[in-house]
Amino acid sequence: MTQAQNGNWLRAKGHAGSKVTFLELFFDLVFVFSVSQLSHALFAHYTPLGAIEAALMMFAVWWVWIFTAWATNWLDPERMPVRSMLIVLMLLGLVLSAAIPEAFGEKGLLFAAAYVLMQVGRSAFTSYAMRPVGRSSYINFVRITIYFAFSGLFWIAGGFLEHEARLICWAVALAVEYCGPALAFAVPGLGRSRTEEWDVSGAHMAERCALFIIICLGEAILVSGRTFSEMEFSLLTGVVFAIGFIGTVAMWWLYFRFGHQRAAHRIEHEDTPGSLARLAFTYAHLPVLAGIIVHAVAVEFMFEHPHETGNLAIAASVLGGSGLFLIGNLWFKGATSGRLPLSHLAGIIFLLLSAFAAPFLQVYVMGILATLVLIVVAAWEYKSLTRAPAGPTLH
Question: Is the model's pLDDT at 390 over the cut of 80?
Fold first, then answer.
C-alpha cells in the first residue's frame, strides 16, 4: 500500500513509517495535565467514593489516549488533515483535563461532551481516512464509531444527572467501550472485526506507550519535587523525598529495562499482531498507569503524615501503588514474552502480606518497604534475564 494509493493520509510502511512524530509528542503534553489532575483529584478526595470516581476518570483518560495512539498507528500526522485532527483533539483534551476536578460536580457535562467529541470525532475521521484501503479496514472503524456513539449517549446523559446517578451512567458507558475490543466490536449487520485485519506496527505502539509511561513517571517526580520545595527541610522530609524518587526510578527500570523493546519485537513478528497489541497495550497498561498515579498520591501522604500509624487508607496507597504497578508489568511482560515473571509475582505477594503489618508501621516506613520491594524485584529480574537461556522460564 503506497501513499499514492491511500490518498496521502496513511503512514508509509517500514521503519520510517513507524517513527513517532513530533506532533504526537506535542499531543501527549496534554496528558501531562490529565495525569496531574487525576493524582490531585484522588489526593483531594481520598475516600472510597473519591477513589472510584478517580478510577473512572483514569479509565476514560487512558481510553481516549490509547485509541488515538491506535489511530495514529495508521494515520500519518505529517499530512495536514491528520495534523488538524490531532490539534483539535489536543484542544478538546485540554478541556477534558481542566474539567477533571469538577467532573462529578458542576463540570460533568463539559467533561462528558469533550470526551464524546474526541472519541466519536477521531473514530469517524479515521473510518473516512481508511476508505481507500479497503472495505474491511473502513468497516472496522465504522464499528468503533458506532460503539463510541452508543456509549456517548450514556456519557451525555450522565452529564445532566448528579451524584451516584452520574457515576452509574458513566460506568455503563465505560463498560460498553471496554467490552468493545474484547467483543471484536461486534455490530448487528456489520459483523465482527478479525484480529488478522489489525496490522499494527509493534515499534510504533511500544514507543507511544513508553512515552506515555514517561509522562506518568514524570508527574510522580514533579509531585515529589513540588511538595519537597514547599516544606521546611528536615532529615525526615529528605528521607521521604529520596523514597519517592528512588521508587519512581525503580518503576522506570522495571518497565523499560526488559519491557517495551521486547514487546515491540514480539509484536512485529507475531502472526496476529493486533490481538497481542490489544492485550499488551490496550488493557495491560491500565494497572501500570494506576500504580504510578497512586504512587504519586502516596508520596504526598508520606510528606504530610510521615509518622501516622493505623490509617489503612494511606497504607493502601503506599503499598497499593507499587502493587498495581507490578500487576501491570506482570500482565504486560507475560503477554509479550511468554514468560511468567516470578520476581513480580513474589513482589506482589510480599506487598499483600505487608498489609497485615501496615497498622503497626509508620507511613514513611511503609514507603521504604514498598520501595525496597520494587528494588528487589528489579534486581531479581535483571539477574535472572541476563543469565537465563532462551525459552519460556520463570524469572
Answer: no
Q: What is the pLDDT of residue 7?
A: 52
How many structural domains comprise the chain? Answer: 2
| Any domain includes 1 | no
With a CB cutoff of 8 Å and minimum separation 6, the contacts of 107 are 98, 99, 101
Structural domain that includes position 217: 202-385
CA distance 323 to 31: 23
**Inside any domain, residue 188:** yes
Q: How many residues does the chain have?
A: 395
User: pTM of the predicted model, to two decimals?
Assistant: 0.89
- Read off the C-alpha cell for 215: 509522562
Report d(CA 152, CA 118) in Å as an integer. Answer: 11
CA end-to-end distance (rounded Å), the chain: 41
For residues 182 and 139, membership in a common domain is answered with yes
Whether the per-residue pLDDT at 223 is higher than 90: the answer is no
Q: Which residues of 332-368 are buried (b: 16+ CB within 10 A; e: fewer)?
A: bbbbbbebebbbbbebbebbeebeeebeebebbbbbb
Domain limit, last residue, from 169, 193, 217: 193
- Residues 232-277 have pLDDT tens digits of 889 999 999 999 999 999 999 999 987 666 776 677 666 666 677 7
